[in-house]
Protein: Acyloxyacyl hydrolase
Organism: Geomesophilobacter sediminis
Amino acid sequence: MRYAVSLLYLLVIIGTATLPAPARAGEGSWEYVGGRGGINATGKGALREYEGFVAYLLPWGLGEHGGWRLNTKANGSMGMLQGSGRYGFIATMGPGLSLESPGVPLELDGGVNLAFISQDVYDGRDLNGNLQFVTHIGLNLRVAGPIGVGYRFHHMSNADLNGRQNPGVNMHLFSVIWYFDK
């Protein structure tokens, strides 16, 4: 299964690296692509998540000149959840915001994603449905040229949409990021 995750990361990186850049500034652009993995934050069970991800900068933002900038973006990911010998597919997509300042290699990142999971029971914990919502907040640090690392805390739950139990899962995720030139 480890090779499948590595192959997924490679496909996401190759696929997004071949996409054309926008013709003019302000039309949006690919911001970064990468891989991340992590563990259940509550210590209940051994749930793990591994995924490839991409972020697309949207043309709308605040604070264009000199100071801090609030960016809008579209986020997407595909990967797997693993716990107690069970494996399942996860795919997410949704809007995000990031706060950054020119010349500072640190970015505050947050967002809300709609998620689909192929299995909804891990470690004896029933997530009650294949449709989930993921909210996240994290920090990304550009460390050398186009290479960055990141930390993300995310919460996944069914938002009580099905009227049944809504246990939710909190995760600590760590990222390796490849930034496209801005």
About this structure: The mean pLDDT is 84. The chain has one helix and ten strands. The radius of gyration is 17 Å. The domain at 2-179 is CATH 2.40.160.20 (Porin).
